[in-house]
Amino acid sequence: MNTNSCTMIIFGATGDLTLRKLIPAIHQLKWGGYLPEDFNLVAIGRKPKDDAEYRENLLDGMKTLTNILVEQSTWDYISERIHYFKMDFSEDGEYERLHAYLEKNKKENNFSSNYLFYLAVAPDKFGFIVKNLKEKNISSENGNWSRLVIEKPFGENLQTAYDLNDEIAKAFNEENIYRIDHYLAKEMIQNITMLRFQNTIFEPLWRNTYIDNIQISVLEKDGVGSRGGYYDQTGALRDMVQNHLLQTLAITAMEPPASLGADDMRDSKVKLMSELVLFDPGKSKTDVIFGQYEGYHNETGIAEDSETETFAALKLFIDNPRWKGVPFYLVTGKKLSEKSAQVTIQFKNPAVCNASGKSNPIYELTPNSCANILEIKIQPREGIHLRLNTKKPAVEDQSVVAEMEYCQSCQYSFNTPDAYEKLILDVIKGDSTRFTRWDELALSWYFIDSIDKKSVPLVSYKDESEGPQEADLLLKRDDRTWWFKEKIKRGES
Ligand SMILES: NC(=O)C1=CN([C@@H]2O[C@H](COP(=O)(O)OP(=O)(O)OC[C@H]3O[C@@H](n4cnc5c(N)ncnc54)[C@H](OP(=O)(O)O)[C@@H]3O)[C@@H](O)[C@H]2O)C=CC1
Ligand SMILES: O=C1O[C@H](COP(=O)(O)O)[C@@H](O)[C@H](O)[C@H]1O
Q1: How close is the Cα of 45 to the center of ligand 1, in Å?
Q2: Alpha carbon of 291 to ligand 1 centroid (Å)
Q3: Ligand 2 lining (C-beta closer than 6 Å)
Q4: pTM for the full predicted model
Q5: Where is the Glucose-6-phosphate dehydrogenase C-terminal domain (predicted)?
Q6: What is the pairing mode between strands 373-379 and 383-391?
Q7: Which option is the CATH number for 6-151: 3.40.190.150, 2.40.128.20, 3.40.1190.10, 3.40.50.720?
Q8: CA 359, 363, 369 angle in degrees (round to 5)?
């Protein structure tokens, strides 16, 4: 048995995720020499196509939707191993055909008996597919493995997430379930752990004594595109905040784990997730802002009277001694003026700045520009930005801000693997460190469910703007500003 050989079976293989992320990731894995030799991909879609047409669609998608450089011999190699299987996965009867197809290919074409099932489908389809995989006995035998990769969002709220988890647990053991959150595989999100725990200058300051507030912003330039049907049922809170933003928050704010191993890391994140609170759940109205871009109703698949939020900003707290009193501001939205993601840690003002303000000749800075800032840049540019106060070289004493920039993507751009490459390889190797455990997920839903969505008014914002003004007021009330806006003003990436 070759544990690294694999037959990957993608449900939803004609969809956006497969085109934009999964196939490019397979291409890059092969190009980098990481794809197992014994690899085949069964691509399940309901549209009538043959292999040649499907492979052509994938190649077009890679060329037009991604910026990867398609290498001809790499593409020739993987495209031969991609097999289109027409199937309507909402029909029970179809699974017997799939079973027979896999068995036949195992015998005749040496397909590996290690199965990687990838559910790149709308969340309401997860349970049905998994139930049928189990009932129709589509799994590996004789010491081979069957692993299940489930996309996000995992459920629509705490209850449906529980129901889904129960359904999946009937078919797969926890160690074979890989709940994906691709932000966990982004280089700079992983780097947060290194930065905190491998630099003596940060960890002692990582607490309310020294930190004023933390901001996590994930902004997107694109609108909903071809995903209107899915997105309109989901909204920004469930599409982005429940998973990517809360996971980023957990990694930023968790207590030091006992080790950097999968379970210790996840134990620390679980503890943190259990401590998330809105200042006052009754205050969803003021501490949560929902927006919708003006052109949203013109997108395909959007209900005429849709009130789905495409922008969400919120202020929350972590109820533990380390973070008591420190607000965390989260923001995400579509159709904004730029695509970027960052975590910004604003330290407290130095005493001299607070005490004297403009009357002190040393500090002619405004309180905002006085604060030390540590910015972890996740995308598009990966890196770290640190803002320090220094003395301006002059006869008189004056301070000046020194902006220190480390551009990681400038140094490593060609070698940095995309998140999906790392995640697919992790599944093939059986390493679940970068995946979400059930208890983390349940707690994140518990927090999201505490937001009284109905009490939050929906405001409109201009396409390609910086979001609704109401989001500014959320910080202005606290005498603060969004750091991502400061960056846009200065034209930084
Ligand atoms: N797109 C992205 O950037 C990201 C997506 N995700 C997650 O990935 C999952 C998939 O998203 P995405 O690819 O965007 O969704 P799409 O709507 O683009 O794709 C869904 C796919 O499922 C297929 N499908 C639907 N019903 C059936 C059926 N009964 N039988 C066979 N095939 C069917 C569709 O086929 P058909 O074309 O015939 O309708 C389509 O190929 C979601 O859970 C999403 O949250 C996560 C991160 C990023
Ligand atoms: O999970 C999702 O993520 C993408 C954004 O991912 P990124 O890696 O490009 O930042 C988002 O567009 C999509 O709506 C959501 O489902």
Answers
A1: 10
A2: 25
A3: 220, 239
A4: 0.91
A5: 194-483
A6: antiparallel
A7: 3.40.50.720
A8: 120
